[in-house]
Amino acid sequence: MADKSITCKDCGSEFIFNESEQAFYKEKGFENEPQRCPDCRAARKQQRGNRNYNSGGNRY
């Protein structure tokens, strides 16, 4: 496997999907490559976490 350059669908920046990340995705059975750069993935994850907490959902 070679490193792949992917364009983030949110911010438009290019990021590298390296060999170790590809191996991790394959090990987990993920069929699709990431569509967002690591920064946008982290921001989206943070946003989802805040939405769940603020919506009154009990996370404990």
Structure description:
- A two-stranded antiparallel ribbon has the order 1-2.
- A hairpin with a 6-residue loop joins β1 and β2.
- It contains two helices and two strands.
- With 60 residues, the protein is α+β, with helices and mostly antiparallel strands.
- The protein has one domain.
Describe the protein's topology:
Elements: E1 4-7, E2 14-17, H1 19-28, H2 38-54
Antiparallel strand pairs: 1-2
* Low-pLDDT sequence parts: none
Summarize the helix and strand pattern as letters. EEHH
Q: Average pLDDT across residues?
A: 89
- What radius of gyration results from the CA coordinates? 14 Å
Walk across the major sheet and give the strand order: 1-2
Q: What separation lies between the terminal Cα atoms?
A: 40 Å
Binned, the helix content reads: 40-55%
Helices, by number, come to 2
Defining traits:
2 strands; alpha+beta; 60 residues
Report a brief summary of the structure:
This protein has 60 residues and is of the alpha+beta class. It has one domain (4-54).
